[in-house]
Amino acid sequence: MGCASSTASTSYTTAKSGATSKPACLQEQSLRPLKDSYNLGRCIGAGASGMVYTCFSKQDDNNEYAVKLLHLGENNKAQILREASNLKSLNHPHIVKCCDVVYDEPCIGIIMQKAGCSNLERGIDDYFDKHGSGLPCLSALELAKQIAGAMQYLHEHHIAHRDIKADNCAYHGDLCSGAHTTLTDFGSATACKPGWRLHEACGTVLYWAPEFHALDYTLKVDIWAFGVLVFWLLHGMLPFRSAGGCYRSPIEAPHDASRDCHRFLQSVLQKDEHQRANATQVVQHAWMTAEVKYDTMESQIITTGNKKIMLL
């Protein structure tokens, strides 16, 4: 079958010294036809960079995967093949895994693990509808740690995702009791090495940092988008109601959140990109490194340093 016409904007590399070496770019002629190895299923998603379907392996006991079909044109062929090559080289427990690359005329099919049964946006909205609030602090923190680890991995490899948001995080499990989340959709990802400035409009405007609106930005736009996502986890709503809200709206944590949580949000939603935390500082922040567990009374306990905070 064919696929919807689209263009992909991904161009990135794993160029960190000592990490996975840059793979040779795939060649269109070397790819197997999708139908030789997989049975195509139903459409489960659509985006600017392609359509996503379920598919079933003909060789691995009918295991289920997801396939993203990207339309090949003369203007984007090299770019899409490079995207597929580089996505295969990424290896992190909270980044969607590319398992195979196939051909389905006139498309390239990127075969990925099925990252989860739902996306985080729907999960947060459902929780808010039932409880009228964001997630409990413990649950939000556990999810934030996972997404931050994925973001740090990308930034260490000089990759800007440029569309970190709840809708691009899949998860399985219970959001309030140890869900596993995976960062997906690399259709806007691009290389961004030290000293580089990017100038392309892409991603989701309500997650844009102030410098993204000026179309003059770095990896730090991912930090801001991550901050917007964490705010949503905690509040059940976005911090800004309009595209221009990022310039003027104050940033507040929930009233019952810890002081470290307040400081964390201020560090990632810092309007001045030069003052904003980087990915390493994010994962090393006191709020992110707090030990979290349930006690015998099923209260949530955060231990930071020698201080314990009970969240009822």
Could you characterize what this model shows?
- The protein is α+β, with helices and mostly antiparallel strands and 312 residues long.
- It has 2 domains: 28-112, Phosphorylase Kinase, domain 1 (2-Layer Sandwich); 118-311, Transferase(Phosphotransferase), domain 1, CATH 1.10.510.
- It is 29% helix and 21% strand.
- It has 9 helices and 13 strands.
- It has helices spanning 34-37, 77-89, 120-131, 137-156, 210-213, 220-235, 259-268, 279-284, 286-289, and strands at residues 38-47, 50-57, 64-71, 98-104, 107-112, 118-119, 159-160, 169-172, 180-183, 190-191, 291-294, 300-304, 307-311.
- It has a 5-stranded antiparallel sheet. Strands 6-8-9 form a 3-stranded antiparallel sheet.
- A hairpin with a 2-residue loop joins strand 4 (98-104) and strand 5.
Looking at this structure, what is the CATH superfamily of the largest domain?
Transferase(Phosphotransferase) domain 1
User: Biggest sheet: strands, sense, closure?
Assistant: 5 strands, antiparallel
Q: What portion of the residues fall into strands of 2 or more residues?
A: 15-25%
The parts where pLDDT drops under 50 for at least 5 residues are 4-23, 294-312
Radius of gyration: 20 Å
Mean pLDDT: 81
Distance between the termini: 53 Å
Q: Number of domains in the coordinates?
A: 2
Q: How are strands sequenced across the largest beta sheet?
A: 1-2-3-5-4
Order of helices and strands: HEEEHEEEHHEEEEHHHHHEEE
**Helix-residue proportion:** 25-40%
